[in-house]
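Reopening this one. Same input as before:
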Amino acid sequence: MTDWLYSIDVYVFHFINQGLATPVGDLFWEYITDFDKRLPIRILLLAVWLVMMIKGGTRGRTAALLAIPLLLISDQLSSAFLKPLVGRLRPCDVLPPEQIHLLVGCGGKSFPSSHAVNNFAMATMLSFYYPNARPHLYAWATVITLSRVFVGVHYPSDIIGGAIIGFLIGLLVTRAWQALCREYLPSLAVR
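Same output, byte for byte:
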């Protein structure tokens, strides 16, 4: 059964990574996969965070402040705990080089995709505070997550598992915060 599931994972990986590859797509996916590492994007994200803190009211400040522990929890859980625990190698470490359209460096373990965990955790939390933006938040998280298969560093199951884990982390952190607020800080609880 495990071999059968792995063969499906590899088949879908090849379909996305090689079958859907184009020169323009390569530029897009390579840029998107690590968009947040570029200085102008970091400045933009900081500016959005500051606007949420200054002009976002209680809802914006709460979401901006909750983003900090949320990302610490999601990133550490995926990178420092789950990846070493599972120990799955990346496709770029296992499959022959001619079977991978590798656009970025390979390094690290594969399951779960930390990009998927972090982006879906954030999309879930922000969707609670900004429900009208939910489709856009999840669409963005999906694009970032898919980029990891397109650039050749994750299997589809890594990103699906990461998305589920991220969704659950976002849900748990948001609900825990709301429960604390209802009990101890009622003025901060979203109604």
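So the earlier flakiness isn't reproducible anymore. For the record, The two ends are 46 Å apart (CA to CA).
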